[in-house]
């Protein structure tokens, strides 16, 4: 993270991911020196433990990436960090820092820096598919868990609007008449 801050890289999330990946070799050496060098395992047992260590390390790296990503990109956390750094800020100062144009500019520059978007003839086009496949994976997981599929904001805004149907009549006419007779015994 020190390298990301020193380089001024707008895609510091990529630096977090790369540092988690770069840690595989030192972590493997450390595990070998502390554990496996002294263990008496069969080759198949060793393979099971290696896969286990790889999964655990990658889960830790995944958590590290998302913890860093949340602290860098979530507006609420960034606002809190800015207030902490300044001591206090007026509402107007915060609104001046986080105007809509700046928020969109920062996100677009990050998407360009990570290779997900490209500016072509004054329009943004999709360049990479990593986030697309991540979104597809999340959508598939939602389906496995039984959640309804979500649609994009663009699809919602361009879809023809249906007029809502009236609520169903809970008491059909014959029941109303029968209920009225029994409720009013005259």
SSE-based structural type: mainly alpha
The SSE string, one letter per element, is: HHHHHHHEEHHH
Strand residue percentage: under 5%
Oligomeric state of the chains in view: single chain
If you average the pLDDT, what whole number results?
76
Q: Main sheet: which strands, in order across?
A: 1-2
The number of distinct β-strands equals: 2
Q: Number of DSSP helices?
A: 10
For the report, how would you describe the main beta sheet? Answer: 2 strands, antiparallel
Q: What percent of the residues sit in helical stretches (DSSP H or I)?
A: 55-70%
Unreliable spans are none
Radius of gyration: 28 Å
Q: Measure the end-to-end span.
A: 84 Å
User: What does the overall shape look like?
Assistant: extended
Q: How many discrete domains?
A: 2
Structural features, described:
With 186 residues, the protein is mostly helical. The chain has 2 domains: 119 residues, no CATH class; 33 residues, no CATH class. The protein contains 10 helices and 2 strands. A two-stranded antiparallel ribbon has the order 1-2. Helix 2 runs antiparallel to helix 4 and helix 3 crosses helix 4. It is extended and about 65 Å long. The protein starts with a helix and ends with a helix.
């Amino acid at each position: 993270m020190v390298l990301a801050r020193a380089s001024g890289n707008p895609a510091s999330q990529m630096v977090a991911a790369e540092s988690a990946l770069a840690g595989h070799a030192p972590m493997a050496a450390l595990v070998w020196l502390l554990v496996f060098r002294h263990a008496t395992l069969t080759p198949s047992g060793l393979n099971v433990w290696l896969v286990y260590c790889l999964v655990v390390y990658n889960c830790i790296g995944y958590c590290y990436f998302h913890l860093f990503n949340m602290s860098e990109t979530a507006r609420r956390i960034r606002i809190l960090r800015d207030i902490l750094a300044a001591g206090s800020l007026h509402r107007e100062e915060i609104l001046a820092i986080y105007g809509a144009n700046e928020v969109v500019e920062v996100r677009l520059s990050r998407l360009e820096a990570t290779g997900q978007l490209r500016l072509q003839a004054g329009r943004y086009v999709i360049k990479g598919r990593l986030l697309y496949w991540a979104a597809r994976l999340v959508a598939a997981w939602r389906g496995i868990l039984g959640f309804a599929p979500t649609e994009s904001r663009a699809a919602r805004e361009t879809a023809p609007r249906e007029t809502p149907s009236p609520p169903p009549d809970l008491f059909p006419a014959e029941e109303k008449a029968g209920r009225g007779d029994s409720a009013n015994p005259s």
